[in-house]
Amino acid sequence: MDKIIMICADCEGDHHQIERIFNAFQEQKIKGNFFFVGKTAEENKSLVKEIAQIHNVDSHTYRHANLRKFSKENQREEILHGKHVVEEIIERPTYGFRAPYHAINRDTVEILNEEKFIYDASVLYYRYNMKNVIEIYPSWFREWTGLYEFLHLSPRLNWKFTKLLFKLLNPLVIAVHPHYSGRNEVHTAAMVEFLTYAKEQNARIMTIPDYLRENKPGSFPIATKATKDQNKDSANSDNQGEGIGDRK
Q1: 3-state SS string over 105-138?
Q2: Which residue ranges form the domains of the chain, and what is each CATH number?
Q3: Are strands 204-205 and 4-11 parallel, antiparallel or unpaired?
């Protein structure tokens, strides 16, 4: 059985850190899932468009808010505002969602169903009946914490643990935060070391939509001709090994 990895990059904040993650994926010739906070997307439209030409792009609320602290209607506003901002920038629909802090509740589940989201990649600590929404369960919550820094631990420590999870779990769903794994070259190198190892083990690193098309037939829209052409163009770009930094 093929080993499957899906990487979910939670994009908020510094565009240089997001670029560093994007360029690392380009150099590794892999495709990931970028969940953009709406406000961050508004501030980095060209970057979002560039990423969306190659990778899967979805939303991560508008302000990176803890939805569990909101009423149902305020949750809906926060979720849909982020979704619409991202869709306007990339000029195509989005179908997935990822909540900040992995924090959803039953109101969130109802909203995702009512607004016809296809999948969610939020739930880590608890389980809900997701009804018609497919849950993509993250396998591990964070690649770096303040505790690691306080104890002067190497960023490679978490990725060593991820190697163990890779042997135990299939699929493996990894959350990546640019403000951790993209904070500097040392942190990015630790991530790349794991990606190199996974590729050496013949792992398939894929987007969530591609995974659903293969494993849950009928759950996700068939790729349009435009999307297929876009993927072909992206593959050509991958072969050239370009990233954003190469084109500036």
Answers
A1: CHHHHHHHHHCCCCEECCCCCCCCCCCCCEECCC
A2: 4-243 (3.20.20.370)
A3: parallel
